[in-house]
């Protein structure tokens, strides 16, 4: 097979010696783009050992030099933005503008990582006792690992390795086996930006390779993004092996629509946030909760959904691309069938969707359900397709209760013209990322990506200050100096005491 994807191990892109190769396909055409290896045990061992050796040198590199590497990397990523997006679009099926967005959100994190010096500053307090001062330092952990999903093959690896490496760690990345070409290209550009060899290793594969990272004694911290069952497995296994872990998992995001909201904004934002990227976003809106009279807008929503169509990545008229695989499509169609059997009303069914000239694409058309109840599998399962479930309630309190009863807590939004309603929602909602008249409230990198409940296992989140805490240890030093030639204020100086009565 000619097009076999190499791995970045020990400073070079090398062909794997494995017997197991995983086909990577263009989901719009079925064409095999390349094959990704399932790294052998020896390759995993060599990657981790090389990362460990790199860490011992890298942690001594001044913070401003580490920051400059990120500046060069950011510059190169911007220069090659379109090239990366083209590779990404082919292997994910995302339409080009969306593929560019995936890369851009990653570039913003690299930009943030270039501020690492101020992010790593410790704290100091003078005179914690007479003549004694305390200060804290942030120090890197060692070799960190990242396991990433298929749906953002640029943004999510870039959430992880630039922040970890800027903090002084080295990194082993195991990207999704469904679209590993983009992460390889990101790694190639990292070397081109001047990254010392071995700081970043990229290995490919699936469960076996992930489990090696989760159990290996040299891996100090694990960052994971993916589905709920795998996230739970990763969190349990990594912490059982006494590692730090941050695991971002699945979601079911609700948009609450108040009757005083702007109808045009509600409808266009529902279409974009439910169907964009074929619904394969962890912050996609998959449930619309219409409060009171806003339920009258559902018919118009149906017309707007019906006007949207999927297509190939380079089709300017396409709103979104195919599902990532035949298996993913089949899963969505099963949930649509179950929704109908369980009594939901399907206003628009995208199960039979086809795209001219692309008979082998994994297409699902925009799909709209009403009369959905919280007991239905359609409501309970993460669908991860262009499917919107509509529910109607009478009051804002009922809407809040519905959202808070969901086991997930990644994102939510409210559309309203009433500040008091928005304030109540923002305050009472048990979800980590809240939009007010903003459908997909993904925080920029100077904040952190703060999913809650079943959408996140761990405590420190991705990027922002929380990532720096995740990828570093805090060392607190308390110091006192003695020198008879240098009298200080505590030697013979005032010795005032406080009367605590
Ligand atoms: P996935 O869980 O199938 O795969 C994620 C990673 O885990 C991949 O690298 C894969 O190789 C590996 N993996 C798969 N099965 C494994 C197993 N049994 N043991 C160990 N490792 C395994 O997820 P996916 O389908 O690639 O991505 C979609 C999911 O990711 C959705 O559930 C989505 O909500 C979620 N996601 C969440 C966020 C977030 O921030 N919360 C962001 C993006 C995606």
From TrEMBL:
An example Gene Ontology molecular-function term: methylmalonate-semialdehyde dehydrogenase (acylating, NAD) activity
Residues spanning the membrane: none
Keyword presence, Hydrolase: no
Residues annotated as signal peptide: none
EC annotation from Swiss-Prot or TrEMBL: 1.2.1.27
Keywords in alphabetical order: NAD, Oxidoreductase
Gene Ontology biological-process annotations: L-valine catabolic process; thymine catabolic process
Keyword Oxidoreductase on entry: yes
PANTHER family found in the cross-reference section: MALONATE-SEMIALDEHYDE DEHYDROGENASE (PTHR43866), METHYLMALONATE-SEMIALDEHYDE DEHYDROGENASE [ACYLATING], MITOCHONDRIAL (PTHR43866:SF3)
Family: Belongs to the aldehyde dehydrogenase family.
NCBIfam families documented for this protein: MMSDH (TIGR01722)
Protein name, entry field: methylmalonate-semialdehyde dehydrogenase (CoA acylating)
């Amino acid at each position: 097979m000619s097009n076999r994807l190499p791995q970045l191990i020990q400073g070079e892109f090398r062909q794997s010696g494995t017997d197991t190769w995983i086909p990577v396909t263009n989901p719009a055409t079925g064409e095999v783009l390349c094959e990704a290896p399932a790294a052998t045990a020896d390759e995993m061992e060599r990657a981790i050992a090389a990362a460990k050796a790199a860490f011992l040198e890298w942690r001594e590199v001044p913070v401003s030099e580490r920051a400059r590497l990120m500046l060069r990397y950011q510059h190169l990523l911007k220069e090659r933005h379109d090239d990366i997006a083209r590779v990404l679009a082919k292997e994910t099926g995302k339409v080009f503008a969306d593929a560019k967005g995936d890369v851009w959100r990653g570039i913003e994190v690299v930009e943030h990582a270039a501020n690492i010096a101020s992010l790593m500053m410790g704290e100091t307090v003078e005179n914690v006792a007479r003549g004694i001062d305390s200060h804290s330092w942030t120090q890197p952990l060692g070799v960190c690992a990242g396991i990433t999903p298929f749906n953002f093959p640029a943004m999510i690896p870039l959430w992880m390795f630039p922040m970890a490496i800027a903090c002084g760690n080295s990194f082993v990345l195991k990207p999704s086996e469904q679209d590993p070409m983009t992460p390889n290209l990101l790694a190639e550009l990292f070397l081109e930006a001047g990254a010392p060899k071995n700081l970043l290793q990229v290995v490919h594969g699936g469960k076996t390779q992930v489990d090696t990272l989760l159990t290996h004694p040299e891996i100090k911290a694990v960052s994971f993004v993916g589905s709920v069952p795998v996230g739970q497995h990763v969190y349990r296994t990594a912490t059982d092996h006494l590692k730090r872990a941050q695991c971002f998992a699945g979601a079911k995001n609700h948009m609450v629509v108040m009757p005083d909201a702007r109808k045009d904004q509600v409808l266009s934002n529902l279409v974009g946030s439910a169907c964009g990227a074929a619904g394969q976003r962890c912050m996609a809106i998959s449930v619309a909760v219409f409060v009171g009279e806003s339920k009258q807008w559902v018919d118009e929503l149906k017309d707007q959904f019906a006007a949207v169509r999927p297509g190939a990545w380079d089709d300017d008229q396409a709103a979104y691309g195919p599902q990532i695989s035949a298996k993913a499509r089949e899963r969505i169609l099963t949930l649509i069938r179950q929704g109908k059997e369980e009594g939901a009303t399907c206003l628009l069914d995208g199960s039979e969707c086809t795209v001219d000239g692309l008979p082998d694409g994994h297409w699902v058309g925009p799909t709209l359900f009403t009369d959905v109840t919280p007991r239905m599998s359609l409501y309970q399962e993460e669908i991860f397709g262009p499917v919107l479930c509509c529910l109607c309630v009478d009051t804002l309190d009922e809407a809040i209760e519905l959202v808070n009863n969901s086991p997930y807590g990644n994102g939510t939004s409210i559309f309203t013209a009433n500040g008091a309603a928005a304030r109540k929602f923002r305050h009472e909602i048990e979800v980590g990322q809240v939009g007010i008249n903003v459908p997909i409230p993904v925080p920029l990198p100077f904040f952190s990506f703060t999913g809650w409940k079943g959408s996140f296992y761990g405590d420190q989140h991705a990027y922002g200050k929380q990532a720096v805490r995740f990828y570093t240890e805090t060392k607190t030093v308390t110091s006192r100096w003695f020198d008879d030639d240098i009298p200080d204020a505590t030697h013979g100086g005032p010795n005032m005491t406080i009367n605590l009565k």
